[in-house]
Design goal:
The chain is 36% helix and 8% strand. By secondary structure, the protein is mainly alpha-helical.
Length: 218
């Protein structure tokens, strides 16, 4: 399970837990802050994962994103606008899924879970069903396990859910969303900025679900 510490990955992991024993992979990729990694640790503990692995890979050397450079994160953007925002990290989900695939093959696991969403999201191309299907083909073509007849599957339990649906599902599962972190550009004290794409989408989800975000009640 790719576990970032955000609302989506926490919910996806909780859904997957009903079917699988979870091994949680968190990747620190040189993003602007370490707050989400701290949340990933808290979320993993709450989920009672079987194993945890943290991997560091510094994507700042590649650049190309306001999450891995000094470029400012956009605030107050129309999250339904068609353009891909500067917070897109080049090939991030391809890189993350590749690392997850390597660990899965080592663990003799054949199921990878990722919390991507193709409805309420910021327009990232690596969150689309076509991309996930293509990566699954790569996983089965480019591994020893696949060549020997194994079958990898990439599970996306949130892919067709709105953010409100995700929030409702998580609340029904008893998840403590105060453990999570979604903000791209948190304030110096770690609180969410409230105006980046991720904060706006999170607020939209809680509002449409008719619920209050526990992070804003502190």
């Amino acid at each position: 399970m790719l576990l970032s510490g955000g609302l989506d990955s926490y919910t996806a992991a909780a859904i997957a837990r009903a079917q699988f024993s979870l091994c949680a992979l968190t990747i620190s990729y040189g993003q602007r802050h370490a707050r989400e990694v701290e949340s990933a640790r808290a979320v993993a503990q709450a989920l009672g994962v079987e194993r945890r692995l943290e991997v560091e890979i510094d994507l700042r050397a590649i650049g190309g994103s306001s999450l891995t450079s000094a470029e400012g994160v956009p605030h107050g953007r129309d999250v339904e606008a068609p353009e891909i925002p500067s917070t897109y990290v080049p090939a991030r989900n391809t890189i993350f899924l590749s690392i997850a695939l390597g660990w899965a093959e080592t663990l003799d696991a054949r199921d990878i879970v990722i919390g991507v969403n193709a409805l309420d999201y910021s327009g990232y191309p690596d969150c689309r069903p076509d991309f996930i299907a293509a990566f699954e083909r790569v996983a089965n073509l480019g591994t020893r396990a696949g060549a020997e007849g194994g079958r990898f599957r990439v599970h996306t339990p949130l892919i067709a859910m709105t953010k409100a649906d995700i929030v409702r599902r998580g609340v029904a599962l008893g998840l403590d969303y105060s453990l999570t972190h979604s903000c791209y550009d948190p304030l110096p004290d770690g609180r969410p900025c409230g105006t980046c794409d991720s904060c706006l989408l999170r607020a939209k989800g809680f509002h449409e679900a008719g619920l209050s975000d526990p992070l804003l009640l502190r």
